[in-house]
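Example 385, ligand flavin mononucleotide.
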Amino acid sequence: MTTAPRRFIPTASKQNPMLTSRNKMKLGLFGMNADGGCAITTAPERHMGDDWVGMMEFCKTADRAGFESLIPVGRWRGFGGDSNFNGVAFETYTWAAGLAAVTDQIAIVTTSHVPTVHPLFAAKQAATIDHISGGRFGLNIICGWFGPEMKMFGGTMMEHETRYNYADQWIEIVQRAWNDPGYFDYKTESFNRTQAFAEPKPLNRPVLINAGGSPRGKRYCAEHCDVAFVILNQSDPDTTRKQIQSYRDIAAEYGKEIQIWCYSYCVQRDSLAEAHKYLDYYVNQHGDDVACNNITDQIGIQTGIFTAEEAERFRFHFKAGWAGVPLVGTAEMIVDQFQNYSDLGVDGICLSWLDYQSGIDDFIAGVLPLMEQAGLREKYIPRIG
Ligand SMILES: Cc1cc2nc3c(=O)[nH]c(=O)nc-3n(C[C@H](O)[C@H](O)[C@H](O)COP(=O)(O)O)c2cc1C
């Protein structure tokens, strides 16, 4: 089947900064499409997942400051407790499309649970968002680990190995939809169609991300993705270094390099004592232990990243910011912490705060200039027009 020539040839008007940024330490925001963001707490000033306007404003702030990425959490139901943590959450493809239209340079990422969406539909939505953004799209591929959430779609949750095998086939079809001209046939164990078709193609090659932490998850990530998005093991520097190297070693088997990103909870104050007081307030006094239990119980069983004991030890970090790394203290201390993570091999960190807007405002005023002085980031000069 052929089609008549078309006059319009779309081209990317922008680059994807997750792939092109030269900053030693890249920056993003994480979790801001869902209630609580990353903080498992009932503190009243926690982020509200349906505050589109407020969320759009701080995402635009990040864009104007030269941050590299906006990454939402893929979430379909909450974790219970008084906060029903993450229960109210925007769907991530449509969320990304909205933000693509109101931002200028930052990468807009969709977090997609592969069992919830057909790969052709995902590929087409992704290409559409890539066009809206001028070529700044990213796809965070998630297999699902929270049983009650996945059961909402298929009635069952696939077993660990099966999920990643399914995700192999899923991304293969997405890639074909993005790259194969005209009509194409595909036949895998889970998918079988003739004469598939997907136009337009993305403007730029979308950045691919995965957060697998088990040996199988790491291999999936290294084989298919540009970025490993990891829960950094915080036991000791040597363990962290080895964890990071393990992703790079597997990527090298595929002849690739891979970026390592993690995420953090940020509490910036004029003194360390004030920062700890604030953490004590929202984590110890207002932490939602029921929601936290529901997460740590499941994550220890369903994933390869934590044993049940490790998840238990990580409770404080979970409540403070989904077990992300702490960036806590004065602006100077936080820059030292960034330097430390950079020295360990981390390429990018997504930030979260209890209150994202005041958090990012303080960060841009206090931390960002010091990161530039330290050589962790170049000064960002916004484009005119
Ligand atoms: C940084 C990061 C972000 C993640 N985001 C999500 C998410 O948005 N939704 C989700 O269901 N799982 C998310 N996960 C879970 C992972 O997809 C994965 O299941 C988990 O890290 C366990 O790894 P494994 O699947 O290799 O056992 C995230 C994990 C990490 C480390």
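Summary: The chain has one domain: 17-373.
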